[in-house]
């Protein structure tokens, strides 16, 4: 049986702490609580009566007390048969509760407090902290909470409350010695608020705040306790607290370190070596360039004072370690007491204690060394006091590794991939990639080498990759720089080519990927399916299958991890475009392929690609509708996805769109291939991008064949025929138009048929077959009119206006009538390009200002040998 009185009164059997028992009657709780508070002591009946009824007990008090004691015994027996008479004994002049020390939380608390206090006096701070923490966790509230307290219990409660607060102060003292100031602050603030007049608690709070870099808050804490003391007691704070305030005002560096037990006690002084420390590895012989960064680093190191230094950050492979070592070797005069290099990730991240020990070892401090962080930090502070010694701390993963060293007075050049959260006291220097002469120097190519720029771009200007590229040229002496540039141009061969010069390059690049969590690794691989060009948030959201705001959080996390780069800034400081670095994109593709190969059902990649294609297709359709309204077989909704400058959007996304279309075709996404091709055609035709135009429509034609889609086949054939006509390949154009006409007839697509007839009419006009052209164009106009195809009517009237200007045609008046109707139709379509074309031709007619060339379609010219004015 065990009992608890440091809080509500409870008893429980071993192993049944979750189901405690408590006497229901308050008087029974008073009797049992009093006997437990004086455990293993005889409590007289008179004291118990006084505790129960105070100064005016009833006449039957003695008899009633005996009844209460009997009920308490029965209560104990109910919990454990026979236990009541074994534990609650009648002993003149009263009663005694006999328990083993471990049966009562009060006696356990007193034992732990006593041994913890002794450990603190012996400067065994870790043991003291653990014992005192264990003692304090026994308290669940006030003594016998919920039980009426008589005079004796009140005195015991006051004594134990004071003992509890003293134990808390002692535990804070031990934890401060262990360097736990940052984590203590919230608890100290609560304790100081609960005990506003206890100066030692406020002193601990001030010390913790100061050591956490919050000097202003520490001084504010002093002001608050002084105000309270003056207001409540009309006294000033005591000497120790005032001395502590003075040290904080003076920014005393000694105060940053754990001191002896008790506020203001001096730290122990040991005789430590004063040798010059020279523990730098040799400078990297391949280090080149970086003159600007070296100069800036030298300035920052020259400005360093105690507790300061430089934080050098940058992506993997950017050359942080090489630059740091070069700067350290060049800084001998600044640091006459030495320079030392410490790798904080030699296979595993070093703890703060391990880092402190290694610095002491570098300084020649002999064994034995203490185990706890506070004592180690005090030794490092003593070692560094009054010395100018530079520590190069490489591969830093977190502030907790190095902050104790900085707090101990180290001047450090901290090298990390990213700025560790919470790291204080360092001047930041972010290291980027190299450009121009520095890149050529790393490649070991002469100034002005024609392929150096291309090689640097394919290496993403990353020093790690540039050195690998230079080494590959050495390893393949029969290669020229042009050969290397060509091999690096292709994503599939880029990494393999660089591995010739540096077999470990991929492993180095993988470290950034391996450091992030599972979700970010998956996102990085998935983004490898996006086009190689910079992409916008909507494209990433489609690939990741996330809402835009969720996708942005993922992208920014990848940027922070150096796995993604911003490629443009939008409104409000947000990035509006991103790109995978040139070396990481093929790595993402490799990783994605390996991941897909390990899955039982490799369908994920296709679903991602399908979402991406649909997102591009939706926006391309809207942009196409804005550029060439009425051209599409099914008009697209205009919802503002591409903004108000669709031509700019197409120009920006053209390469991405063609890449997505090729990927859709390769994946057998036939319907999406058709949709993308249709949306691209208007822009490619407008820009006369003949090569891309043909490639896109050939893929669309193949997709239509797989789908047995005669409508799609007709559209692709007509577009290819339009291209052939523009290029002047009239025979090929006529053949393609005829194939398109047959496909349109089979599909029943009359609108498409009307436009094909216009194309055939244009071919006949170009061949001088004006009669046949007229028949085709009249039929095209009739079809377009019948099926309410506004753009088809415009095209037919445009061609009929050309026919009117040909020999034997209707003449200028007929042409003007046709073109005037074209202007009206262009207004209806809201197509400024078609409107401008019709007005230009009308102006030529009215001014008889036609030149040797004739604009037969918007932007398409032919010699006007047979045309009339």
TrEMBL record:
Pfam families in the record: BTAD, Trans_reg_C
Record keyword Transcription regulation present: yes
Record domain OmpR/PhoB-type: where: 1-99
Gene Ontology biological process terms in this record: phosphorelay signal transduction system; regulation of DNA-templated transcription
Gene Ontology molecular functions: DNA binding
SMART domains: BTAD (SM01043), Trans_reg_C (SM00862)
Matches recorded under InterPro entries: AfsR-DnrI-RedD_regulator, BTAD, OmpR/PhoB-type_DNA-bd, P-loop_NTPase, Sig_transdc_resp-reg_C-effctor, TPR-like_helical_dom_sf, WH-like_DNA-bd_sf
Keyword Transcription regulation: yes
DNA-binding region range list: 1-99
Swiss-Prot/TrEMBL keywords: DNA-binding, Transcription, Transcription regulation, Two-component regulatory system
PROSITE patterns: OMPR_PHOB (PS51755)
Family: Belongs to the AfsR/DnrI/RedD regulatory family.
Protein name, as recorded: AfsR/SARP family transcriptional regulator
Source organism of the structure: Streptomyces tateyamensis
